[in-house]
Batch of 4 targets.
Target 1
Amino acid sequence: MPAVTTDNLLELPRVPVPDPQASTPRRVRAVTSAPQGFEGEGFPVYRAFAGVSKQALDPFIHMDQMGEVDYAAGEPKGTPWHPHRGFETVTYLIDGTFVHQDSHGGGGVITDGDTQWMTAGSGLLHIETPPESLVMSGGLFHGIQLWVNLPAANKWNPPHYQSIEGPQATLLTTPDGGALIRVIAGEVGEYRGPGSTFTPITMIHATLSPGAQVTLPWNPRFNALAYVLSGRGTVGTDQRPLDAHQLAVFGDGDSLTLAATERPDNRTPNLDVLLLGGQPIREPVFTYGPFVMNTKEEVVQAFEDYQKGKLGVIPANPVPHLGA
């Protein structure tokens, strides 16, 4: 799991440790396991938020862990051209390469540790597909796609695209150097990630060595979620077990704790976990397919606008598409 790393963790800034006498640890409210499914042209995913209430997830809507899968030559798959409206898609690629293009002029190549942040807003078409070289060679593919809701006032904003290259992430460690903390968006103490978001959120990819523990300050106005990408550990001060493809939902407070077990699983020596928090929007949400709106009527309108070509057209020079 390369993502972004460093040769010497002890050279990194130390994450601030909350004062145990002045902070309120977040307790774990629930742990859920992600079922497997398929997305796009058939690439395997884990549905990370399955079985969790909208209220607990707000402002997040949906998240897939894509892979981890080691493709043979000719097997890599992507998505066909499809529409979105009313939210932001965040694609964080840990292993492999994806090419993105949208009808609003955004796009590029995302690879190990890069993040593609696309604000669909009022609507667009886009495609995500492996490059021809990866299709020919095969190889490891692993990433995350997260959907972040937009407030009603911002659902009609013009589409926007930002590319966050892996080395742009803010890298931190713990006082003992036992963990690598990649801040992609939001703040951890005085440190801030490069991601710019309409909806205030925090997004962190942390890698903990066996036996390491992390306690992070957390915005008390945000919710808090921890999803294990690989490995085995515990969450909360009561050390609730958390394995690969499981999600922990935290309660209120201003700090959260996680730790890696001394005895990792057979696949990886470390605990890799995605930490998410966001300011709840607390508005009605109606989702269907690729649209996230406030009412059923708005989703119906989105489908009608898509059918009329109002969400954009496929560019004259589109990314080569598998099977096209």
Target 2
Amino acid sequence: MTAGPDAGTHDTETGEREPLEGRVALVTGASRGIGRACAMALAAAGAHCILTARSQGGLEETDDLIRRRTGRASTLLPLDLRDGAAIDALGPSIADRFGRLDVMVHCAAMLGVLTPVTHMRDTDWTATLAVNATAAWRLIRTIAPLLEHAPAGRAVFLTDGHAVRPASFWGMMAASKAAMEAMVLTWAEEIPPGSGLRINLYDPGPVATRLRVQAMPAADLSSLPGPDAAGAAVAALCLPAETRHGQRIAAAT
């Protein structure tokens, strides 16, 4: 990990305390798209962000954008979510480095291959499940103790409409995200009454991202919203004032 929290996180324009001042947020898939937008929105709210993705270059670009917007650095952690041992070490590493984790936003995802169910290949299925479902379980397991001890722990998992509305050829995404949703909502049910931890799913709907282009290379994305709206919505779910818990929240259409 590189860099660490900066002191004195106040809104420089108003002088008011930022809602996530002094808090630490982990964002997966932060090198581009919605993950980058979430990281920027959380940083703008005062959080020190731990950014993970496979691409070091993409993480550095996100960090540069955050520095320009807030004047603060992030902690960069290149991470392949197919590496179970690396995920397992994440919680202890954050505890050793920061002593806390207040927010976790899981944006990283794999499209898989758009193909009939009968044509799915073992390697594609295994890789998609590893990123979209197994990695989410490992993240929950490694960061839960930190979030449970946070004064207002927040966890948001990005999901996809195909998890609840299956469509032809989207079987890998649908099945893997449905598994993730079931696991996240089960975890939410297991949180004892009186806990300050809030856990939710967020479905941003169609967004103009690289993943969307990968899925539909010939589609016109000019009418779709960019990632910033999704980033702002997710950041709002991470604020201490948020009361929703165990819900699947979809973007307004």
Target 3
Amino acid sequence: MPEGPSIVILREQAADFAGRKVLRVEGNTRVIDIARMQGKTLLAVCSWGKHFLLVFPGFALRVHFLLFGSYRIDERKENANPRLSLGFAKGRELNFYACSCKYIEGDLDDVYDWSGDVMADAWNPRAARRKLALRPDTLAADALLDQDVFAGVGNIIKNEVLHRIRVHPESEIGALPSRKLGELIREARDYSFDFYEWKKAFVLRKHYQVHTKKTCPRDGTPLSYRKHLGRARRRAFWCDTCQRLYR
């Protein structure tokens, strides 16, 4: 599943489509009436967390890439039909695959809390702390994946952030010392921007410390692994030596 930083990169790559008119619409989605976009001018390209947003007059298209979604700009995947393809002048096109498409009516400001997006200029760490205070029994691993609190954080960021701050994924939010809770909130954003820079430089995997790894780089301890951890039931990698369990 593409995480928030990857969606920001897509937003940047697609930014120059804003102001262009959609001349062709096709795709195999049956959930929305894709003809609605035909002839409409794309006003803006936005993102919120893991949502990619194309803004048209009076409505927006939300693209969510789920677990296996992908996109191509000005090219197409071989042997794959796009879920949605938007064509513009001079042969330019946006193609989306294996994703969820949904229309959002009206003003996006009425739908999205921009202060909850860890990569947004409007990000508000105090608001994140207030939301976490209402979830004292939530596991740290689940809290980081809660898009209402940390929009854009995905499983890679979750595993790496918890290793950075030396917190076991099954620690309870209410048991974390105030300083540790602050570290969790701060690193959710900081690591997301590191992810963004590494992803753009095509070196992201080289910087994994625990995700998909077998040994802790800090102390050499074999890492623990669980295929389905917490309510989110996502993969978790952690070190029992340097990541403390707070309960």
Target 4
Amino acid sequence: MTLEAIKAEARRAAFARRKAAQGRGLERAAQARLGEVLADHAGRPLAGYMPIRTEIDPLPVMAEAARKAPVAVPVIVAAGQPLSFRRWHPGAKMVSGPFGAMIPEAGDELVPEVLIVPLVAFDRAGNRLGYGGGFYDRTLAKLRAARPTVAIGFAYGAQEAEALPLEPTDEPLDAIVTEAGVLTF
């Protein structure tokens, strides 16, 4: 079986676990933990994300963070390119972006120092499996080459996998936050 086929199977299984976790009342506990983790980074530019499909929702935590520091959301520039980040605030006018994620209609570009990273699956070594476009891997590599950058995976505990198929270009996370706890690396 090819690496791509192994990743596709890992994604399929993780999507099913994530879908089963959604709507079970787990988000509030995860959001509270995420808020505690982000308190250690208060005042630093933050990038979150607009949840799509069955992704866990970081918006309440992002709204709280926006009271103290600039917050942005990712914008896909083009296939094979790192993400850019557009400033966001609660109530910002949003439009549909690539892959169905909402993005601010207008706003300054922001270079985050801390990122809340969506994922499909994670393992206890700080690895993540995304959607397969490599956007976050390229982005984290670029940001980390310029300065220290913290990547915090945000997920349901059900998204944990025993092991993940990895490539040399996969960027590790610094922490993973779920309703069950916080893993740091």
